[in-house]
Amino acid sequence: MRITILSLFPEFFDSPLSCGLMAKARARGVLDVRVENPRDRATDKHRTVDDTPYGGGPGMVMQVDPLARTLDSLAKPGRILLLSPKGRPMSQELARELASEEALTLVCGRYEGIDARFEELYPVTSVSVGDFVLNGGEAGALCLVEAVARLLPDFMGKQASGDEESFSRGLLEYPHYTRPEEYRGLRVPAVLLSGDHARIAAWRREQSLTTTLAARPELLAEAGVEASDLDFLRDLPRRALGRNLCVALVHHPVLTGERKVGTTSLTNLDLHDICRVSRSYGVRAVYATTPLADQRALAESLAAHWVAGEGGRGNPDRSEALRLLRVVPDLAAVRAEMAEAFGRPPLVVATSAKGAGTVTPGRIAGRLARQPVLLVFGTGHGLAPEVLREADETLRPIRPFADYNHLPVRAAVAVTLDRLLADHG
Ligand SMILES: C[S@@+](CC[C@H](N)C(=O)[O-])C[C@H]1O[C@@H](n2cnc3c(N)ncnc32)[C@H](O)[C@@H]1O
Q1: Position 302 pLDDT exceeds 80
Q2: How far apart are CA 286 and CA 309, in angstroms?
């Protein structure tokens, strides 16, 4: 494969391309890497490659012409990749895709970036190496070159090592050990010394699954996990973030049909479905709040039927879900119960289909690891303004940019819990 790198700092690549496997692969002709400096194609006597931005602003912008001339001079540019924080995230999947190309050209930006017309003139794939900003594309280009090169046939001495690595089967890698057998009291796991290859393979698979669940659970969704893997994962202890989370379904004060603040009636379907969803995500408790004593009595008799009565005997799954239900007069009672159960008051997070919200699900997921959280949902036309005002945070709405986002509260609970807990808890 030929890789051409366009960079204003060719010396950046001197050492990394001349050591280890990379140097050997280049010497054997597995990989032909060249670095071209667009400054060599500048046409003025100062060899200018940048200029100030139109419209003003800080920094300089790389001019399109020196880059275009350099690209046009290449006999075999192949697929053109532009290192950019706006690009497609670099991944093992992209590395595999690129490894099948005959040639690649990597374009490294500097300063504030490159004149936007460059991307209009050439069929460019932008690639980002992460959600951070580097001084230039060179460090990113190196990552890309290395990730792609080691997938080329003959790059590594023993091809198998490439296949076993992290991400190649969608899972993170199992731990490795080498001599000595014991170091500072820590022994190599006995199974690795057993000589039993089937057991070693099974242990490694389980270690990969355990590491992935702990460190990057979102990878499991795309990984090639089998039924036996799922059985193993189900039995693993996990960070049960849902144990720190309670859901409240508020029936007063909420906005009613006339957009006035009032009270709604409890509904059987909401209670069933919100309890089932909450149980599925490992939520600690579901509170239904209503100031109406007869409504509370109704909800309690419904729960009793499913938890301890005839319903629960016929449908134990339903019983398990309805066990989460607590019926209380108002949010103050929920707060008090949670403060007692957790030993500290919860962070109260209200939800609304309107507005921008004060916090994202990702941030609340982070907080859940450290403190109890009460997630408050409204019935009717949503929570009354005073509930939103008194909450510590308001969650960013689901689909805030869409022209229609009127979800039933049961669906809103399901979507929100998935965003907060996904398969982590
Ligand atoms: C200082 S950066 C320009 C940042 C740009 N003004 C912005 O705010 O997005 C200069 C160059 O570094 C490269 N670069 C910076 N961060 C990167 C990243 N995360 N992934 C890939 N390339 C990156 C790009 O080639 C970029 O043109």
Answers
A1: yes
A2: 20
Do both 230 and 246 map to the same domain? no
pLDDT over 80 (residue 209)? yes
Enter the tokens of residue 390. 């008194």
Cβ of 128 less than 6 Å from ligand 1:
yes
Any ligand 1 atom below 6 A from CB of 5? no
Predicted pLDDT of residue 215: 87
The whole-angstrom separation of Cα 290 and Cα 327 is 8
Asked which of 161-170, 326-335, 377-386 is least confident by mean pLDDT, the reply is 161-170
Q: What is the pLDDT of residues 333-347, one digit of tens each?
A: 999 999 999 999 999
Give the global pTM. 0.86
Using CA atoms, how far apart are residues 258 and 91, in angstroms rounded to an integer? 52
Is 132 annotated as belonging to a binding site?
yes
The per-residue b/e assignment along 325-335, b for 16 or more CB within 10 angstroms, e otherwise, is bbbbebbeebb
The Cα-based distances of 147 to 46, 153, 165, 304 in angstroms read 36, 13, 12, 59
Domain with residue 90: its CATH number is 3.40.1280.10
Instruction: Summarize pLDDT for 376-389 with one digit per residue, the tens.
Output: 999 999 999 999 99
Query: What does the pLDDT read at residue 222?
Result: 86
Query: What's the token pair of residue 337?
Result: 């119960």
Distance 141 CA to ligand 1 centre (A): 11
Terminal-to-terminal C-alpha distance of the chain:
44
Query: Is residue 221 scored above 70 in pLDDT?
Result: yes
Does the Cβ of 113 fall within 6 Å of ligand 1? yes
Q: Is 203 found in the same domain as 284? A: no
Q: Is residue 374 part of a domain?
A: yes
Between the CA of 43 and the centroid of ligand 1 the distance, in Å, is 25
Q: Is 24 part of a structural domain of the chain?
A: yes
The DSSP code for 46 is T
| Strand partners of residue 375 | 247, 349
Q: Which residues of 366-385 are buried (b: 16+ CB within 10 A; e: fewer)?
A: ebbeeebbbbbbbbbbbbbe
In short, whether 215's Cβ falls inside 6 Å of ligand 1 is no
